Description:
Number of helices: 9
Strand content: 15-25%
Helix content: 25-40%
Order of helices and strands: HHHHHEEEEHEEHEEEHEH
Shape: globular
Amino acid sequence: MPDYKSVMVSTKKKKKKKQNPFLAIAQGLIPWKGDSVGEIIRKIVFIVSIIALCVAVVIIADTYIFKPQRDRQEYNNNILELYNKEPTKEEIEALPEKAINVEYATFYGENPDFVGWITIKDTNINYPVVQGRDNDEYLYADFKGNYNKNGTIFADHENVFSATENMSANTILYGHNLRTENYFTDVTEYRRIDLDKSLEFLKGHPVIEFNTLFEKAKYKIFSVMILNTTDNYGDVFNYPSMINFKSKAQFNEFAAECLDRSDFFTGVDIKYGDEFLTLSTCEFESMLYDMRIVVVARKVRDGESSVFTEEELSKFVRNPDPKYCEVYRDNWFYGAKWEGRYWDPAWIEGYEKDETFLDWPE
């Protein structure tokens, strides 16, 4: 008679041994004993692909995130070092004729392309400005002329900076606004999709200071525009060509176009002979190719206060109908056409009101 206990043991189902999950994953990814040749090749290709992907991610992150940040920090450190350095007698003597702002002698000594310094209070904008032989030289070069994707702030190559020649009627400064949050990044705050937020920023930062080797000057902002640079989007306002004006009529029409296209009105008055400062940087929020944010300011006149009163700031308003390019209007205003001007013709001395001016909407 069979032993009862042995029968019971033999009839019991043996439990399957649980496999280590980490070992299972390793066997699925790494060539393992018993794998076929095809399976080994598949695993090797997979591992190589993963390694290549990781390397690519590291390279992209370093190129577009970490390197620009390192470059920015290095650049700022170099600028700060020059800023804190006391100019030598030799550097001061090497300044151009009739230069008065000797505190910039160190920058001019480091790079004779230096033409001035731009500051907008309580923003990141506090930088030297250079001028190249064309408008490409400093597009991807730092203050010292070394290659840098961030570029630096530079004046239009046709602008004149001199104490012995007539200065340009309109000084144009260009700068990038990359994710490193330097150069003209804060210029984009003047013109966001959220226009109410940008209006508040404008009220808080309505004045630009731009000092050259020959003078110290402040400028009151009167226009903030989003402009197309390609005629595929419609009529192009060629502001880079407006550096000098041949007549009062041409001057007035430039000022009028700036007001037509401005998202905001500040009420700053303009008269023939005034000097302008224009800041230009790329615009990305509209998702249209090669658009620009352009801020135009009028130089503070002799004897005029550079400070806006609370009453003056309270009159800063949005333009009810800015003159945008056709494609922008199609995308954001369902193709609605520009109706006309809502600004006060008295803001431009001698400008006559005509049928293009409309009554302020209720």
